[in-house]
Amino acid sequence: MTDTPNYSVIRKDGTIELRQYPAYIKAEIEIKDSSYREAIYKGFRVLADYIYGNNLGNKNIEMTSPVQVSEGEKIAMTKPVTISGDGTYSVAFIMPSEYTMATLPQPKNPAISLLKVEPKIMASISFSGFYRAGQVEQAKERLKVWLDKSKIESEGAFIAAGYNPPWVPWFLTRNEVMIPVKM
């Protein structure tokens, strides 16, 4: 079983949850001038290379899930980035929980950033099927409607998260769209 970030459910409404996440570390790469699907493939390959030993310690790091993808923004900001559709995507792997910033091997590839994500509350909607831009957009819209109806304000970026390897049948996959919220 692959390690996933821990969280506690604050509220559940069908496929939508409000979750409290503790701090975690992610390895992230920005992919430019790409489609959503190409960004996932390109980013996955670079990050997989890092966790399979292409790091300063030549150490294998356990694969975790989900793989997170968010669209980039043209102005300077903190991560995760907000969605603006400029053809830039951030692809991230969540690092296993036993690592700290001090113990995680540094990537040899300078395009990979290691970032500590502070504790936060996220709204999440789950869906199965192929991890494609159209399905992600539909999930974002459903989550936006629920947030508006629930009078919960979002803050920050939508993040698409895929939990399964590509060989898992579409009807068994677990995918999510998440966004930080103010509570």
Features:
single chain; 183 residues; alpha+beta; Multidrug-efflux Transporter 1 Regulator Bmrr, Chain A; 9-stranded antiparallel beta sheet; 18% helix
What does this structure look like?
The protein is of the alpha+beta class. 18% of the residues lie in helices and 30% in strands. It contains two helices and nine strands. The chain has a nine-stranded antiparallel beta sheet. The relative contact order is 0.23.
Main sheet makeup: 9 strands, antiparallel
Strand-pairing-aware structural class? alpha+beta
Shape: globular
String of helices and strands: EEEHEEEEHEE
State the assembly state of the protein chains.
single chain
CATH topology: Multidrug-efflux Transporter 1 Regulator Bmrr, Chain A
Question: What is the CATH architecture term?
Answer: Alpha-Beta Barrel
Give the termini separation: 32 Å
Number of strands: 9
Low-confidence stretches: 74-85
What count of domains describes the coordinates? Answer: 1
What's the CATH first level? Alpha Beta
CATH superfamily: Regulatory factor, effector binding domain
Question: What portion of residues is helical?
Answer: 10-25%
Mean pLDDT: 87
Q: Give the neighbour order of strands across the main sheet.
A: 1-2-7-9-8-4-5-3-6
- What Rg, in angstroms, do the CA atoms define? 16 Å
Number of helices: 2
**Share in β-strands:** 25-35%
